[in-house]
Give the backbone structure.
Amino acid sequence: MRERVVRFGKGASLVGIQTDAVSAQSEERPGVILVNSGILHRVGACRLHVRLARALAEKGFSTLRFDFSGIGDSPVRRDDLVFEESAVLEIQEAMDSLGASNGARTFVLMGLCSGADMAFRAAQVDARVVGLGLLDPWVYRTPFYYWKRYGPRLMSASAWTESFQARFGSSRDPNSFPQIANEENDQELELPTYVREFPTRQEAEADLRRLMKRNLQLCCVFSGGQSEHYNYEGQFRSVFRATGLEGRLKEIFQPSADHIFTDLVEQEKLLCTLLGWMSCQFDPSSREEMRMSASEVRQAG
Amino acid sequence: MNAFFFGSSERSLFGVYHPPQGKTDRKAGIVLCCPMGQEYMRSHRAFRQLANLLSRKGYHVLRFDWFGTGDSMGGSSEFSVRSCLDDLDVAIMELRDNAELEQVSLVGLRLGASFAVLGGGARSDVDRIVLWDPVVSGARLLASLVGDRQPRSDETIGVLGFPLTPMMRNELSGLNLGDFSEFSAVDFSVFVSDESSEYETLKQEWRRAGIPFEYSRVPAAGNWNEVDNFGSALVPQELIGAIVESFVEGGAQ
């Protein structure tokens, strides 16, 4: 396992850790960029980015986990870009850095919550992105969501005595960057500002349709921590059925997981999902093995 | 600042060196010792700020991740008290070599403070140790982490997203700063964000053992072992400022 510190971006100000694939990475394989979520630094919630990076390296994928400016060890930007703009730019710089180092020409972006949002934005503007691993990305409620959530309660007489209206919140997510416990007065430690608001469903559909036309592969994992928006596996597929994502989407629901996957068993499930998806979609040898074993099964049958 | 890996290739540790900023070089170094688990996640930003402020005052500062934590090598279940004490030795030598220093000071938060005392308290190349909201009793910490669960003796359990192995539980149950007695000419300073019976015990035990120390309560946020949907950070400005001032007022010129 080889890991090294990399400095990249304008003025080499961004700090990241590059984990090189254990076997020499072929240019066919995408590099993987792990994107900050909220104000957590690059090791990721519960150190998941570190584990993911090392497991991906074992499977032949190089990764770069890094800190957006103003987060972790990367200093604050001194320009007038808002976070949504600078984050996309910095993800592109991360791709430039990893590509220059190991020859990768395509990339998979992975992130949780705001990290998923920024990964999705970057994929919109950069054709090098061929895959997105999104953890608790935005999603929209469906009639079945409401049925699943409120159906059992509708059968309960006592539930009718409670306020119903208050349960339907807006699409504004509470997972915005939090306030730090005490106000920081150090300019070098200013936090970027980001309030998580879902795009309109029409915007999201249009953006997703564009990505599907590029044949981008999508893996969405939802935790039980986002139950105010999502409560059954297949909901994302159902919402965006018209965007052409069939055959390009892996959707997994981990209802017992919280938003930052603190449960160790849920962490294993998550890693297993992401690693399996990467191998299946982006490892030519793995695809060949699967084709051969399918062929053997057919012959045996 | 300079982020880098150091130590042996098998036990590579991630560190960030903050050289003195501005015109003053006090020719003095400080190694920052972080806590474990979610406390590590929650304190990362506070440590960066502490390192920045100290380096602006002319100190050479090294903050680093223990083996099995953060960006350092090793899995989270490989974290152990014994390996942390080895890591501390490596980190002290790294800063001494880098900055060409004979002695350094240590600042530790929570378990980092405990490791600083156990690993640095008897060293001749450590002149001062600052304990910030220290874990005095490992058994007491363990009880709060495990709660009413009753893990089998060979069972690894999860605590706020991180594994707590049988070895860690065993080591923590035997950790007690009140029992610490082998110390050299080190100045100990204890900074706490709030009073607790644990700190009262520490004061009594250390006075009884003749360990010289200063004790300060600086009211500030100190709820380190918490987790929410954001893994949000805690940056207690007042306490960080007090630690920096204590170095400037009493430290090397």
About this structure: The first strand of chain A starts at residue 2 and ends at 8. The two ends of chain A are 42 Å apart (CA to CA). Residues 78 and 95 of chain A are 22 Å apart (CA to CA). The beta strands of chain A are 2-8, 14-20, 31-35, 63-66, 107-112, 129-135, 217-223, 249-254.
